[in-house]
Each structure stands twice: as structure tokens, then as C-alpha cells.
Amino acid sequence: MLLHIPNVLAPEQLRQVRHELDHADWTDGRQTVGAQGAQVKRNLQLPEASPVREALGRLVLDALARHPLYHAAALPLRTLAPRFNRYEGGGHYGFHVDGAVMALPGGGQLRSDISCTLFLAEPDEYDGGELVVNDTYGEHEVKLPAGDLVLYPSSSLHEVRPVTRGARLAAFFWVQSLVRDDARRRLLFDLDVAIQALTANPGTDRGALLSLTGVYHNLLRQWSET
Asked: Which fold does the domain 182-223 belong to in CATH?
């Protein structure tokens, strides 16, 4: 499932993030990938130990915690703290697949089910920089307004095209979902959205709505891994 999640950050939060990033110290993004990724990656990132990265990561996670559409789509179990990157002057990240298992700070591991990119620069601030996700339906170009997020299966082949003007700023992170299988997550998401629409309709048959809600939770109970 490739899904656009709008308005993750409010305008005042976005201004705070941009101020911090505009005055941050950046490092070579190849330091955080393996040998294969380093061959196709040309960008800048906030250093892993950066206090700015830690503070802004908490801000992003707090915003996501209040976003019901994100939770309905991701069903997050574990989330790797957001990182922040900058593409400019031809910077790009060629086609790659994200690593399947990632180390969590303080110990433990995360299985990357879902990849997320939160756009932090407006589309007219830079040329190029499209996130391209390749799936069974072809290539999908994604370039969203600042404050909006896209999520997609981590198993997808994807790239960031070269930025030829301006700077592309984004946060990115990975999620281990309660439901490993993408097709099942999509079914649960569609069911959840339908239930919410029916809940908001005063004319809905409440008995049927209760039954449908039970189906959702029983499927989640059957498919979830905790």
C-alpha cells in the first residue's frame, strides 16, 4: 500500500523544524548505509548522535501519535527514530531496497515493514527530488507538500531522483507493523476507513456497524504479531 498522509505537521511545527534544519550541521549520508547503498547514495544527513536529530525526531513521533489516518494505515508496533536528510546540487539516491532488519537504539531489532518519508520542503522550493516507488503497477512519483507524509512497503524498489535546484529536506523512518503482510494491512485499512465513515453517518444501522467493527477486530486479532 502506497498512501499519502496529509498534514502530519502543523504550520508552526513545520516552521520550527525548518529553522532547526537550516542551522544544523550535516554529514555525508553514506555513513548510515552498507557498501551497496553507498554506491548509489549522494545526500546529507543529520549525524546519528545529533541532539537536533533527537529533538526533531521526538516532535515528528509526537505528531504521528495524534494522527488517526497514520495509525489506521501503519498499525505501528515499533518505530525507528526518524532521521533527516538533505538533497541538493545533484544529490540523489539510486534504486534500492531498504534493509529488512534494523537495530534499535538501546538494543533489540525492528523488522522494516513500512518505509515513511515526511516532506519538509515545499515542491516549488526545488527541482527534481521525486521519490519514485516501483511496484507491480509500475513506477509512482511522489513529491508532496511540506508537512505531508507518504508510506509504502519497505520491500519496494525505490529511489530519490537528482535535485537540480534548491534543496529537498525530509524526515524518513521505518515501522514494524502489528500486521506483517501488506495486503492484509490494506484490507484492515479499507475496513477501518469504512467503519469510520459509517460511524459518522446518523442513519447507519448500529447493529450492522457493531458487527462490522467486530469483524475488523477479529481479523486484527488473527493477523497481528506482538
From this structure: DNA Excision Repair, Uvrb; Chain A (4.10.860)
